[in-house]
Design goal:
It is a single chain. This protein is mainly α. The protein has one domain: Na+/H+ antiporter like fold (Up-down Bundle), CATH 1.20.1530. Helices cover 81% and strands 0% of the residues. It contains 12 helices and no strands. α2 (29-52) packs parallel to α7 (178-189), α3 (63-83) packs across α5 and α8 crosses α12.
């Protein structure tokens, strides 16, 4: 229990420091968008490429991981369809399914299950971003292409629907998330060795991604709460509280609904023992900061998502120990 809390507290502290910096005005919302762009376009690709370059597909036990993704993609699809098949729905659906498997998952699952458990977790991590972030990117680009076509732009209105889909898929592949994943995966399968002069900068940038993303969550959260306070002062209390209700619902769905879904699928697919325990534990981790960067890049959910990341992380101090102890 104490180890779980000690692993979660640094995440909470980083978000709190970012919140303080944003609240004091040390980083403006415009400045945070520039930092977010740097994080999304430079640091995230470095982390994804280096991680995937160390993956060897022939060594992966994908059966429990496939079961995990059946649940995640199914939940993603249900939320996407029920919320309206738009950019906001896509980002919220990603928030409900994308776990913080690295910063929290590795230390916590390593403690609970040891090296055998980490083997299952690393298999999941090696495909986690590839599957979920690529899926979200493709859906978002398709939605953006549909929005452009419906707005009657110069060329968009005259395109054949198949051309629109192909352009969206092209934009999804040549993107700061899927492209480094695919390149890194190809690099790893070729058996090449990264020169130290290139590997070390990639490692530094990858290490900077997590802390900076969490600081940005806090900075953005400060702006959200500032707007909420102004809305409250104008007596528009229903509108002011809406992002908090949405964020709380997302946090509960992610921290409790997602692991329960994975548990049920384990019984359906016959996955049990250590493999099922690790998958359920990974699903119980709070929302990953990558979702926040998607909301910034596509300019949607910018009130709900940072609040949801913060609420999910704080709530995890109660839900994660409960899930880990129960599964154990």
């Amino acid at each position: 229990m104490l180890f779980v809390l000690s692993s979660l507290l640094p995440v909470v502290v980083l978000i709190a420091i970012g919140f303080w910096a944003g609240w004091r005005g040390w980083v403006t919302q415009e400045g945070s968008r520039d930092i977010s762009q740097l994080t999304f376009m430079v640091l995230a690709p470095a982390l994804l490429f280096r991680t995937m370059s160390q993956v060897h597909l022939d060594q992966l036990d994908v059966e429990p991981v496939a079961m995990y993704f059946v649940g995640a993609i199914g939940l993603f699809a249900v939320l996407l369809l029920s919320l309206g098949w738009n950019r906001r729905a896509t980002v919220l659906a990603l928030a409900a399914t994308f776990s913080n498997t690295v910063m929290l998952g590795i230390p916590l699952i390593g403690l609970m299950y040891g090296p055998p458990g980490l083997v299952y977790l690393f298999t999941l991590i090696s495909l986690h971003a590839l599957v979920l972030l690529t899926l979200a990117t493709v859906v978002l680009e398709l939605v953006v292409a549909r929005e452009e076509a419906s707005s009657g732009g110069s060329d968009a209105a005259q395109r054949h629907p198949l051309v629109t889909i192909l352009i969206a898929v092209r934009n999804a592949v040549f993107h700061p998330v899927p492209l480094p994943i695919l390149l890194g995966l190809a690099f790893g399968q070729l058996g090449w060795v990264m020169p130290q002069t290139l590997d070390k900068p990639l490692q530094w940038m990858g290490n900077a991604f997590g802390p900076l993303a969490l600081l940005l969550v806090g900075i953005t959260l400060a702006g959200v709460l500032h707007d909420l306070r102004q809305s409250w002062a104008r007596q528009n209390r229903t509108q002011a509280m809406r992002p908090l209700w949405v964020a709380s619902s997302l946090a509960l769905l992610k921290n409790l609904g997602h692991p329960l879904l994975v548990l049920g699928l384990g019984w359906v697919f016959g996955v049990s023992g250590l493999a099922l325990a690790v998958m359920v534990s990974a699903a119980s981790m709070p929302i990953g900061a990558n979702v926040f960067l998607f909301s910034q890049r596509y300019a949607v959910g910018q009130e709900e998502v940072p609040t949801a990341v913060a609420v999910s992380t704080v709530l995890a101090m109660v839900t994660v120990p409960w899930v880990l102890s129960w599964v154990q």
